[in-house]
UniProtKB/TrEMBL annotation:
Alphabetical list of Gene3D superfamilies matching this protein: Histone deacetylase domain
InterPro entries: AcuC, HDACs, His_deacetylse_dom, His_deacetylse_dom_sf, Ureohydrolase_dom_sf
Pfam families: Hist_deacetyl (PF00850)
The encoding gene: acuC
Family of this protein: Belongs to the histone deacetylase family.
Annotated GO biological process: acetoin catabolic process; epigenetic regulation of gene expression
The name this protein goes by in its record: Acetoin utilization protein AcuC
Source organism of this protein record: Actinocatenispora sera
């Protein structure tokens, strides 16, 4: 690892940010998962001074080795990815599909993302920081033996396995990507040490077609999987109501030592691949809630990843810059202007995009979080409330919680 933190006499860093330009090499070409979204995020965060704050440790990763990749993935699959990295005719194992086309040095680029996520996990568990983030990570759909949903290697799952091998006994994984976090759930479905929570658009409407409320964990880990399947068109108020009705109670009941979050930005209303209707202000509010959970339940230990997000200019860079700001200690106020130099870079990289003028989706936005009405039990007419009740009925009793008590 290459570390740019000051050393002699410096105060201990509070946040490790994994970054190197080489992380942009995870590039499928003409494809929705464009690495420019990561480039523009890091550029915006730097322009706003987030990466230069006291206590921020920028760390360049090294690729994960085969032993690390085998914590989740099979030998046959690793061999297939290596072969596809040099032979564009390779198929099988989910490779060379529209979702996961092959590209030169795909194995090396994917292993570097895993290396970044593992280093972030190690920094939080036994290193110098309580918080760490790999914005280029969050590839939560990859399965042990095949690629899926733009994801080659499952870096969050490998990072969690690394933490378990290092001695962690309870980890909560919260996934706010618009798509179900199916790969991570699959890996830990029968492991009582890991709680997976996913808020996503209904599997009836969106890839990967999983994440129903009835998916609650395997025989050896009942209650270890929590799924909130939201109806298409859910906006800020409904999404936040669902989040607060399920996530804090489940995490508190599980009592994890560490919070891991996948913060895909594709639930934004501008995203072209899904149909939830969140604002960037709502996403910022969600990150603040996750921060509070990490502080109150996990002693501040928080490991964060990026994930999906395909509004390359309009949504992703602002959402993840808000995440980086919260992780590094001070939220950015929503009405903060985006720097002119960043807007020029965004226009140069994505001429079809429309760089936003401020860090908010609402003109003249104040610094307050987005409001929502509390969830209440019963037989609700609202589709979001019905989704919440379905989740709470399915899994809350397994966690020792009352599905009808709004205090849980």
């Amino acid at each position: 690892m290459r570390d740019n933190a000051d050393t002699a006499g410096a105060a201990p860093p509070q946040t490790t940010v994994m970054w190197a330009p080489e992380l942009l090499r995870y590039d499928f070409g003409d494809h929705p998962l464009n690495p420019v979204r990561v480039e523009l995020t890091m550029a915006l965060a730097r322009e706003l001074g987030v990466l230069d704050r006291p206590g921020v440790r920028l760390l360049a990763p090294t690729p994960a080795d085969d032993a690390t990749l085998r914590l989740v993935h099979t030998d046959d699959y690793l061999a297939a990815v290596r072969a596809a990295s040099v032979d564009p005719a390779v198929t099988g194992h989910g490779l060379n599909t529209a979702d996961d086309p092959v590209f030169p040095q795909m194995h090396e680029a994917s292993a570097l993302i895993v290396g970044a996520s593992v280093a972030a996990a190690q920094a939080v568990w036994s290193g110098p920081t309580r918080r760490a983030v790999n914005i280029a990570g969050g590839l939560h759909h990859a399965m042990p033996d095949h690629a899926s949903g733009f994801c080659v290697y499952n870096d969050p799952a490998i990072a969690i396995r690394t933490l378990l091998d290092a001695g962690a006994e309870s980890i909560a994984y919260v996934d706010v990507d618009v798509h179900h976090g199916d790969g991570v759930q699959h890996v830990f479905y029968d492991d009582p040490r890991v709680l997976t929570i996913s808020l996503h658009e209904s599997p009836y409407a969106l890839f990967p077609g999983t994440g129903f409320p009835t998916e609650t964990g395997g025989e050896r880990a009942p209650g270890s999987a929590v799924n909130v399947a939201l109806p298409p068109g859910t906006g800020d108020g409904g999404w936040l109501r669902a989040f607060h009705a399920v996530v804090p109670g489940a995490v508190r009941a599980f009592k994890p030592q560490l919070l891991v979050t996948q913060c895909g930005a594709d639930a934004h209303r501008a995203d072209p691949l899904a149909d939830l209707r969140l604002s960037v202000d709502c996403q910022r509010t969600a990150y603040l809630a996750l921060e509070q959970l990490a502080e109150t339940v996990c002693g501040g230990r928080w490991l964060a990843f990026g994930g999906g997000g395909y509004a390359l200019v309009e949504a992703v860079p602002r959402a993840w810059t808000h995440l980086l700001a919260i992780l590094t200690g001070t939220p950015i106020e929503p009405d903060t202007p985006t720097p002119a130099t960043w807007r020029a870079l965004a226009e140069a990289r994505c001429p079809q995009g429309h760089p936003p003028a401020t860090m908010s989706d609402f003109p003249g936005a104040a610094a307050a979080t987005v409001p929502h009405r509390p969830w209440d039990p019963g037989e609700p007419a609202d589709a979001v409330d019905r989704a919440v009740l379905a989740t709470r009925r399915a899994v809350f009793p397994l966690l020792g919680l009352d599905p009808y008590d709004p205090r849980d």
